[in-house]
Amino acid sequence: MISFLLNNDIIHISQARADLTLLEYLREQKNLTGTKEGCASGDCGACTVVLAEVVSPNLQYKSINSCVTFLSALHGKQLITVEHLQDEKVLHPVQQSLVDHHGSQCGFCTPGFIMSMFALYQQQEQPDRETVIQALSGNLCRCTGYRPIIDAALSACQNKQIDKFEQAEIQTAKRLEEIKSQNISTDNLLVPTSRQELAAAKAKYPQAGIFAGSTDLALQVTQQLKSFDKLIALSAMPDLNQLVEQELGLLIGAALPFGKMESSLLKHFPELSELLWRFAATPIRNQASLGGNVANGSPIGDMPPALLALNAVIHIDNGLQKRSIAASDFFLDYRKTALNKSEWIEAIFIPYTDHKNLVRAYKVSKRYEDDISAVCAVFNLQIIDGKVRNIDAGFGGVAAIPATVLELNTQLKGKSWSSSETFDIGKDILKQAFTPLDDVRASKMYRISMLTNLWKRFWLETNQSTQKIATRVVHIPLLRKEIRHA
Amino acid sequence: MRKLIEQPTFDSKNQAAAGKSHNHESAERQVSGQARYIDDMPEAANIHHVAVGVSHVTSGIIISVDLSQVKTSEGVIDVITVDDIPGHSDIGPVFPGDPLLAGPKILYHSQPIFAVLATSVNLARQATLKANIIISPTEACLSVSQAKVQENFVRPPHFMRRGDFEQSFAKSPIHIEGELIIGGQEHMYLEGQVSMAIPEEEDRMLVYSSSQHPSEVQKLIAEVLDIKLHKVVVDMRRMGGGFGGKETQAAQWACIAALFASRNKVAVKLRLPRMMDMMATGKRHPFENRFKVATDNQGLIQATHIDINGNCGHSPDLSDAIVDRAMFHAYVKRIRPMLRRADRSFSRIPCI
Hints:
The complex is a heterodimer of chains A (about 475) and B (about 350).
Chain A: E1 2-6, E2 9-13, H1 22-29, E3 48-55, E4 58-65, E5 78-80, H2 93-100, H3 110-123, H4 129-135, H5 146-158, H6 164-167, H7 169-179, E6 189-190, H8 195-204, E7 209-211, H9 217-222, E8 231-233, E9 243-245, E10 249-253, H10 258-268, H11 273-279, H12 282-285, H13 290-295, H14 303-309, E11 313-317, E12 322-326, E13 331-333, E14 336-337, E15 344-351, E16 358-364, E17 375-384, E18 387-396, H15 406-412, H16 420-433, H17 444-462, H18 477-485
Parallel strand pairs in A: 1-5, 6-8, 7-8
Antiparallel strand pairs in A: 1-2, 3-4, 3-5, 9-10, 10-15, 11-12, 11-15, 13-14, 16-17, 17-18
Helix pairs in contact in A: 2-5, 3-5, 15-16, 16-17
Chain B: H1 27-31, E1 48-54, E2 60-66, H2 68-71, E3 76-80, E4 105-106, E5 112-118, H3 121-128, E6 132-137, H4 144-150, E7 158-162, H5 165-171, E8 174-182, E9 194-199, E10 205-209, H6 214-225, E11 232-235, H7 251-264, E12 268-271, H8 274-280, E13 287-295, E14 301-311, H9 319-335, E15 343-351
Parallel strand pairs in B: 1-12, 10-11, 14-15
Antiparallel strand pairs in B: 1-5, 2-4, 2-6, 3-5, 7-15, 8-13, 9-10, 9-12, 13-14
Helix pairs in contact in B: 6-7
């Protein structure tokens, strides 16, 4: 039984269509039509709602896209919709601020923006402009323009008052603790809590979809009109939802949302910060998991190139036996991975890099925060005495699978990194390495050019002598901040 | 978002031309989720939902349409094709050329061929996947250059002339030529196309349509249903954006919803999923323009010729006005302030 608070009301669900999205549930079953459908694919943010979760003794508020969420994600949480923000007849500070800053025109994107602003309001005392932009990165506006909306968010969050949510926080947390049950499963939506249960569920329903954050699987329902009689959620699997900073590396549970592991990941791999912010918008990262990004075998998924370059290891389980394979052996062919039918990814291990390693991750896409890469490239270089000791790399968007280019290592090993000849050899290797597709996202020639241009950027950025050359157009304060912290 | 200047140069909270700001009249309802769009309205009892089945071929002739499996699909109430339209089957707003449902020619990719009425949105959409349609493809004309070679124009070319371009051009010592190609654009209203039709007494029809042109929707529905204009009421309170994309493009969905409502005497809603919306509706025109300019040795313009070629898609729709307007704007804004004596000639060709 899935139990949660819908705004202030306790709801228990034991029977429902497995693939009922949260957006359909709100609009069609609860008549809460303030939450809008813009795209039903997690791109526009019109459907943004907020989930409050107990992180003892407080509540943690996260924005999510209700259009790509299944009901199991609600268990034990408070689901807050736009209708619930105001206190009697008084608008919530984020609502009043958007009114005062003239931040709405047609108003269709507005509830989604309000919910992203509300999640930010609950998280940050004094967010800066960049933080606001990131919090709003999953919301598209087509008429007003973003400046008044950003101003409204900044103004509300910088003049924070105690709202009704803060007043009720302890009581809400208590109510949420009380409604948590052991058996979350409904008749169609299975939520196993142990590897034995998961193995049994997979064996019983071999056709069932299996998901962690559902940001990818839900698209099969909303975009391809596929229906699933049964679904298996990984959200209550203890081993799949933990994060362990081990002695030699970071062990990331496969089902853990990015939002819960980013700070640890960035602590050890600060160079991935731009890739991470650009991986997806905030509401998607609050749901999406690293395991899902790997298991779906997308040729473009933005983390697999990083995992290839960082020599990550994929831990696989089938309930009886565990095995581990290198990320480079995991991707076999287009959407085909080394996972057997009975298996799932338990965790992903990323070995720490030496502080001498030069790691850079680049993504080229049209939309800044929420888009599929045209090309993604991650390099991991070790230099000793000015000479290349080792170079690992991962590329996305250029082949049927996320791929590495071994020739970079074999041909450049021992060469002087600052020599332009080294750069040229690498460039020639990358030019020949792939035959990418022409598609709507980018042409074959564009992808090859990007690949060699990113190689050039990497070479420029990591060479002492040429470091002064500007290699970036967009200024990213957070990237610098993160690296400085590390 | 990131292209904005980081710090605003003015306080958007207090700035106003006349010294006083007024809030948007709907702002409080918009920020609290109370602003009501068509898909948010309370639904009539027993409301049914529509999905459209489209062509996956860009240009061709329909050979056969087998909808037997669509009709027996779960929840399906009614299925229509072009043969089921009682009145006009062409809903071109100014000139003919926009069929409500395709047949026998396929004029563009994702052109609706049939529509399904079912008990739920999902069942209607799933039923559309079960059609068996055979189309014999023909070569599609997709670019201005192709259209010019084939003289495949949706409207006749227009010309504006002043002076003698050829003579001034020939006399001038410096000649410059070039082209300017502008891509097309999706309107990207956040609220997709949506209509809700409610049959009323006798053969009257009430239609809620997210349209920028409700009176035209009223006229087209009356013509499609073959009833008098006064029997159709179109209500349009609020749109989630239109940007021109709901000027003529909203009518098709309102007409299909009204047709189902009329046939089945039930309330009907048609809401296009985003991907279908982007594929099946018209876009802002791409242009492929060319210019020739002649100047004297000081660089003063003596003669200009501008070719304005609008890629209008398959039908005239509003393209006559749009491509004309592009020509007028180029004339007024670009040339006139530069030199008063120059000789100008313009041609504008709306191509398929």
